[in-house]
Amino acid sequence: MHLFVTGTPIGNLDDMTFRAIETLKDVDTILCEDTRTTRKLTNHFEISTPLRSYHDFNKEEVEDHIIEEMKEGRTFALVSDAGMPVVSDPGFELIGRMQRENLDYVVIPSASAFTMALVASGIPSYEFTYFGFLPKTGRKRKDKLIEVMEHPFTSVLYESPHKIKDTIAAISNIDPERNVSVSREITKKFEQHERASAVEMADMLGERIPLKGEFVIVVEGAPEIEETFDMPVTEHIEVLVGEGMKPKQAIKAVADLRGLRKQDVYDEYHKK
After folding, report:
1. In angstroms, rounded to a whole number, what is the distance separating the alpha carbons of residues 201 and 196?
2. Which residue range(s) make up the domain with 230?
C-alpha cells in the first residue's frame, strides 16, 4: 500500500484508534497540513515518523515528488490538522493522481465534526447535504446562503467564531422560524450542542453560547409549500434586500421558500 489516508481526533486525543497509531508508526513519512499541529499528536503517542508539509499552498509543488517516491516503494500517511483528511482539506487531488497512476491507497476512519454535529442536532438526517465553509465575503457568500435556505434537505455548514453571529442572523432574516442546531468544541471539555429556531439562536450566541471554538451549523431543510410565514410577502422581500440581496434575487428566494409563483411575488412587491 502506498498511501494511508488516516483520520485523527477532532479534539479529544483519546479518540485516536489503535489502527491509526500503528499506521503512523509504520509508514515512512506523514504528510500533514501543519507540522507543528501534527507534532503534538505524534509526540503524545510516541510516534517518531518524519513529517512533511502537504497543504493548499504547496500541494502542486510537492505532488510529483510524492508520486515518484511512492513508485520507488516509500509509504505515506496523509493526515489533516484534525479529523478526516480531504473533508474541507487538501488531498483529493493527490488521491485522484494516484488513481490515474494505478497506485494503491486505503482510508483509515475517524470522527468528523460535521457527522457528529448532525447526529447531535436532532434534525432529520436521512437526506442531507454537506456545504462545508461558506465563501468568505461578498455576493458568493450571499448566493450560497440562499442556496442553503432553499435546499429541501438538511444542510450542514462549518463556520468560524468570528462570523457565526452574522451567519445565524442572515439565516434568521430569511426564515426566523427555521430549526437550526449549533455545535462547538466537539469532543472537548466544553462541548456544546444547542437547537432552536433561527431567531432564538441569534439571541443565544454570545450569551448562552460562547463565541469560542469552531462551529458546525445544521439547518433544517426548506419548508414544504403549505408552510406559512408570519411576515407579509413584501416585508419578507425587504428583509432580504436589507441583508444585501438585489430585489430580483430576494423575490426569487421568497417565491421558492413560500412555494409561490415568482411572477405573483414580483407583482405583489411592485404594487406596494
Report:
1. 6
2. 224-272
